[in-house]
Design goal:
Blueprint (H helix, E strand, L loop, with lengths): L5 H23 L2 H39 L1
Length: 70
């Protein structure tokens, strides 16, 4: 398994940022901030998924290349 790429890292950061916004918004009764946090978390999950897919394709291509070399 290879290291996470920039999309995975950014997605994780966006999810964390969204969770903080969502919790702070809920705590202070700010529905807009809470909703914005939910949107940030959802976007982060999508970006992380994209990054994982991109990494998996890259790993598969590398595996095929290694198999051809043998």
């Amino acid at each position: 398994m290879s290291l996470p790429n920039k999309d995975e890292v950014k997605g994780n950061l966006d999810q964390a940022k969204g969770a903080v916004k969502e919790n702070v918004g809920r705590a202070i009764g700010d529905r807009d901030m809470e909703t914005e946090g939910q949107a940030d978390r959802a976007g982060g999950k999508v970006q992380e998924g994209y990054g994982e897919a991109k990494r998996n394709v890259g790993d598969a291509v590398k595996d095929v290349g290694d198999a051809i070399k043998r």
